[in-house]
């Protein structure tokens, strides 16, 4: 087992676009949640990992005392050989909290910037502003936690192409080691979804979204950030080792309320509501979860969906080693169709998306479905 994900579902604000498992931290049983989370972590068979990723929610919403309790337990229980990432909000990155992260072995921070435009940040209901972004990065640099990823979004309400150019200008100035730049996706059960249904919110059409995405790819390439995944950019030494576990379709533990994991041929989903998660751990010393067993056909489909997100694509030799068959034989008709469309390239070693294929990624992925 290479990787471990730990979920902290608490936030100081609920963002208008977010559909992750999260709750406002005020009046929540945070200490009881950490107790339950530690019980689940103690039950894991493996103790040595290449990567650990603590996400949310917002892990930095925890108080310094709560944060230290979690960090000290992780340090005592597990070893991390490659990458140990914590998600953070710019306005919550105090010197005290950053010192704790560094002292307990965290070597990478994922900073939720989203936008440099204060008006857009208000629409997103983010708790930080423009100045907080620079203060937090100054703190990171000062204590030597220089391996940080900057999370950005595009196609946001009220956003113009000028905002994309402004963000590129600040990326050039700040020089983060890694950029994740995602398009806004309107998910059910979010504030934005409800606003769109009522006609109170509009977002740009697909053509404008594609234009912004092309500029993001072009601009980051010009700044020296190679694209290694559909929405992620970094030189090879700073690619996210943890997220590549997902894209390479490898196994990982997911712990905490609503967390997902993948072990053997099973994907599992922990119970979501925080009180239910705590009750499950306290009463049964195990978490209630939904488990889905994947057939080999479904595993192969996921191999294609996930692998094609990466610029290098799906390695043919790796596919054959895993499934005992050639990708060229198994997907002969599909590959020929997609090559004719110029949506994939095949160099004999890898199958990968072309730039045109990236623009219609979901349609490409659907071509590899055999289980329906």
Automatic annotation (TrEMBL):
Where does this polypeptide localize? Cytoplasm
Predominant subcellular localization, coarse grouping: cytoplasm
Tell me the Gene Ontology biological-process terms attached to this UniProt entry: porphyrin-containing compound biosynthetic process
User: Is Iron-sulfur included in the keywords of this UniProt record?
Assistant: yes
Gene3D superfamilies annotated for this entry? tm_1862 like domain (3.80.30.20)
Q: Name one GO cellular component term.
A: cytoplasm
User: What is the organism of origin for this protein?
Assistant: Lacicoccus qingdaonensis
Q: This chain belongs to which protein, by name?
A: Heme chaperone HemW
What family does this belong to?
Answer: Belongs to the anaerobic coproporphyrinogen-III oxidase family. HemW subfamily.
Q: Which InterPro entries match?
A: Coproporphyrinogen-III_oxidase, Elp3/MiaA/NifB-like_rSAM, HemN_C, HemW-like, rSAM, rSAM_horseshoe, rSAM_sf
> Which GO terms label this protein's molecular function in UniProt?
4 iron, 4 sulfur cluster binding; coproporphyrinogen oxidase activity; metal ion binding
Radical SAM core domain: residues covered: 1-223
Summary of the function given for this chain in its UniProt record = Probably acts as a heme chaperone, transferring heme to an unknown acceptor. Binds one molecule of heme per monomer, possibly covalently. Binds 1 [4Fe-4S] cluster. The cluster is coordinated with 3 cysteines and an exchangeable S-adenosyl-L-methionine.
UniProt keywords (A-Z) are:
4Fe-4S, Chaperone, Cytoplasm, Heme, Iron, Iron-sulfur, Metal-binding, S-adenosyl-L-methionine
């Amino acid at each position: 087992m290479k990787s471990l994900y730990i979920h902290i579902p608490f936030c100081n604000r609920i963002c208008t676009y977010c559909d992750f498992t999260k709750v406002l931290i005020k009046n929540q049983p945070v200490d009881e949640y950490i107790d339950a989370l530690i019980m689940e972590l103690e039950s894991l068979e493996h103790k040595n990992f290449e990567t650990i990723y603590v996400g949310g929610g917002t892990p930095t919403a925890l108080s310094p005392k709560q944060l230290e309790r979690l960090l000290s337990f992780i340090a005592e229980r597990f070893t991390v050989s490659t990458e140990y990432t914590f998600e953070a909000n710019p306005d919550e990155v105090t010197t005290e909290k950053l010192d704790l992260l560094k002292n307990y072995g965290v070597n990478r921070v994922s900073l939720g910037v989203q936008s440099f435009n204060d008006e857009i940040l208000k629409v997103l209901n983010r708790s930080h502003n423009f100045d907080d972004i620079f203060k937090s990065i100054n703190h990171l640099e000062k204590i030597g936690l220089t391996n940080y990823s900057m999370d950005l979004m595009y196609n946001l309400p009220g956003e113009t192409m000028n905002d994309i150019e402004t963000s590129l200008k600040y990326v050039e100035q700040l020089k983060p080691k890694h950029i994740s730049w995602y398009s806004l996706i309107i998910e059910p059960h979010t504030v934005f979804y409800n606003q769109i249904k009522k006609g109170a919110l509009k977002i740009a059409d697909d053509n404008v979204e594609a234009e912004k995405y092309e500029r993001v790819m072009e601009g980051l390439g010009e700044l020296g950030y190679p694209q290694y995944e559909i929405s992620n950019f970094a030189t090879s030494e700073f690619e996210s080792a943890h997220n590549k576990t997902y894209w390479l379709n490898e196994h990982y533990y997911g712990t905490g309320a609503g967390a997902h994991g993948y072990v053997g041929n099973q994907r599992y989903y922990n119970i979501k509501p925080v009180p239910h998660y705590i009750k499950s751990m306290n009463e049964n010393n195990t978490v209630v979860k939904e488990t889905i067993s994947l057939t080999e056909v479904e595993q192969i489909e996921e191999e294609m969906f996930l692998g094609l997100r990466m610029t290098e694509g799906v390695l043919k030799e790796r596919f054959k080693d895993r499934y005992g068959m050639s990708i060229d034989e198994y997907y002969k008709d599909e590959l020929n169709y997609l090559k004719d469309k110029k949506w994939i390239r095949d160099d004999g070693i890898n199958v990968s998306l072309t730039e045109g294929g990236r623009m219609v990624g979901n349609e490409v992925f659907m071509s590899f479905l055999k289980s329906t």
